[in-house]
Structures are given as structure tokens and as C-alpha cells.
Design brief:
This protein is α+β, with helices and mostly antiparallel strands. It is 26% helix and 19% strand. The strands form three sheets. The protein has a six-stranded antiparallel sheet with strand order 4-5-6-7-11-12, covered by helices on one side. α5 packs across α9 and α7 packs across α9.
Length: 350
């Protein structure tokens, strides 16, 4: 998270967006000569500065070791540890110590650039409900106008657990409402669900938000909803913008970069050879990394297409598919007017 050339900490003030923007010498001039408007659109939803705090969530089984639980499904469960700060990560010595001395098999990390809500810890991602974590890169348009009606859609206990003012946390609450269904909420937060059920709850929450916008606003604005959810064992990540032509914020995935980033194995995220490698790459297990920007060379990453999702089940099987939602929920409103970007949008990166 900290040392790599393209680490999340470096994304505070740099962009590395292969497939969307060129990064090789001389390529930018050729790119700009014919694609100025496309360049503006990419930058409009991938803000250059992310200095309004950060958050991480990583999973450990420690809590289960000190709790007597009769249910076998939760007796050895992974639970998330949250750490959030309103300052940039490289200015936080506690974070630097955590990053240097923590190991986990599941990690969410997020840096923030806020324009619509206060820069305070509770507004930082990721957001947790029991063992379930969600983080969001983008915006639910005109959220302040639909917030009251959106709250009415939430389960009562889920609503009580909201601590901040962001559109993202309220969306996380709606996702949990649909994921848990009629089960007793707080107990349901400790349970796991099939990855297909996580995907379906995520899509339903997106669709219901867009339908609510139509009802309350009288029109359908475009939304950027790059969203990732996990329970510590399964993952769903969506790259989505409900617009007929405009692109969502960037989102990539890799099933090989973990070897390059792990100091126990050959290779280095900054290029070259890791002389201190303890293992060969064949000993590394299956894995999935999803990020707004690649953290190693672009050859190890794949750009998730617009309105697609990638998901991984408990056994590590990875699949990618198109997001299915009604076509009438695609907006035709053009909000890109230059490098200033969209009105009231909160741009955030993982």
C-alpha cells in the first residue's frame, strides 16, 4: 500500500490509467491530437488529487477465538478491523506502522477526495456491517434530494448503524437490507451468503436507487457506482455508470500481480528482480486484486469493461460478466463540461 511506484498512497497525487490514458513517452501528444473530449471525460471521473483522508479494512479470525459461538458457520469467522483517518495516509505514522506489520488474506483500502460531505473519519470508506464491507468510488447524483426517501427503504437496525452523511454509506445500508432479507439484522450481519446473492443484492440496490431518482427528481441523472463488497471470503466488484455513452471511473483486476507485490516471491512492483525472495512463484495461491489503478506494470492488469462486474467465490474461482439492469435506466444527460467534472460529485479511489 505504501512503497510501490503505483501504490494506493501514490494515487493521492498521480494517475496511472492504462487503457484509458497513455503513459508511455510521446503517446500523450498523439492521444490528445484526436481524443481531447475523451481525455476530459476520463479525468472528470478520475480526480488527480485525493487528499481528504483514507480508510482500510482487513480481516482476521482473532475475534472468533474469544467468543463462544454455537453456530459452526460463524465459530471461526473472519472479522474486519477498520482503521480510518481524515489525513492523507503518508502523513499518518500509525498507518505506516500498521502497513509494515500487518498480514491478512483480505484487505480493502480507500483514499478520499470529498466535495459534498465533511472531511471526518466517519465519512471515510470502507463501511462495515458485521463481517460485511463495502466501498464506493463515484457518486449517487442528487443524493441530498433522495436521502429521506432512501432511508425509508432501509431496515431499521441497518439505518441505526449509519454514522456518517455520505451517499456511499447509505448505499451500503441499502445493500445490507437486500442481502439479509427477512433475517434478524444484526445476527444476519455475521453470516455469509453465496457470492451470487451478494451480486444480486448489489444490483438490486443500484436499480432501486435509480428508480427512486426517477420518482423523486422527475428525471434520471447519471450515476458513477464503482462498488466493491466482501465478507472476507467472497468478493464482488462493479464498474458502472448508467449513461448511454460516458465511461465510469477506472477499475482494473489482476490474478497475477499479487506475486509481484509479495516480497516473499521473485519480481518487484517497481520492476527488476527481488533478490531476497524466499519462494518461487509456483507456491503462491490463487488470488484476486481489484483496484482503481494498477499497482504493478499494466501488463499484469485488465481494465474491467463499462457496466461489468468481477466476482470471486470462497474457493477462489473468478468470473467476469456484464451487469444486467433495465436499459431505460441509462441516462442521456451530458454532464461533462470540461476538466472541472461533474456537479457535486465525490471522487474517491481504492
Amino acid at each position: 500500500m505504501k512503497r510501490k511506484k503505483h501504490s494506493i498512497c501514490q494515487q493521492i497525487n498521480t494517475n496511472y490509467l492504462p487503457g484509458l490514458l497513455p503513459h508511455r513517452p510521446g503517446a500523450i501528444l498523439q492521444f490528445l491530437s484526436g481524443k481531447v473530449e475523451k481525455h476530459k471525460e476520463v479525468l472528470a471521473r478520475n480526480r488527480y488529487l485525493n487528499v481528504d483522508g483514507f480508510g482500510i479494512a482487513y480481516y482476521t479470525p482473532s475475534r472468533s477465538h474469544f467468543t463462544e459461538i454455537s453456530d459452526p458457520e460463524t465459530s471461526h469467522a473472519q472479522h474486519p478491523i477498520l482503521y480510518k483517518s481524515a489525513q492523507p495516509p503518508l502523513h499518518d505514522r500509525n498507518f505506516r506502522s500498521l502497513a509494515a506489520n500487518t498480514g491478512t488474506l483480505t484487505l480493502f483500502a480507500h483514499i478520499r477526495s470529498a466535495t459534498a460531505t465533511p472531511v471526518v473519519n466517519v465519512n471515510n470508506h470502507p463501511f462495515a456491517f458485521g463481517r460485511h464491507i463495502l466501498m464506493h468510488n463515484g457518486v449517487i447524483s442528487d443524493f441530498v434530494d433522495i436521502a429521506r426517501d432512501m432511508c425509508a427503504m432501509l431496515n431499521a437496525d441497518v439505518h441505526k448503524a449509519i454514522t456518517g452523511r455520505t451517499d456511499s454509506e447509505h448505499f451500503a445500508a441499502l445493500y445490507m437490507t437486500y442481502l439479509c432479507g427477512e433475517k434478524t439484522p444484526k445476527k444476519a450481519w455475521k453470516l455469509t451468503y453465496p457470492v451470487s446473492q451478494m451480486r444480486d443484492a448489489l444490483v438490486k440496490a443500484m436499480v432501486e436507487v435509480m428508480r427512486l431518482q426517477q420518482k423523486v427528481l422527475g428525471y434520471l441523472p447519471p450515476n458513477s457506482m464503482n462498488i466493491a463488497v466482501t465478507d472476507g471470503d467472497r468478493l464482488v466488484a462493479v464498474r458502472m455508470r448508467n449513461h448511454t455513452t460516458e465511461e465510469p471511473p477506472s477499475l482494473y483486476y489482476s490474478q497475477v500481480a499479487g506475486v509481484t507485490m509479495n516480497r516473499k516471491y521473485p519480481g518487484s512492483p517497481n520492476g527488476g528482480v527481488n533478490e531476497a525472495a524466499l519462494n518461487n512463484e509456483t507456491k503462491h495461491g490463487r488470488h484476486l486484486i481489484v483496484a482503481s489503478e494498477p499497482s504493478t506494470d499494466e501488463s499484469e492488469w485488465t481494465l474491467i469493461p463499462k457496466n461489468h462486474y468481477v466476482m470471486m467465490d470462497k474457493d477462489g474461482a473468478v468470473s467476469i460478466a456484464m451487469l444486467e439492469y433495465p436499459e431505460e435506466l441509462d441516462s442521456t444527460i451530458d454532464v461533462v463540461k470540461g476538466l472541472a467534472g461533474e456537479k457535486d460529485e465525490v471522487y474517491e479511489g481504492w
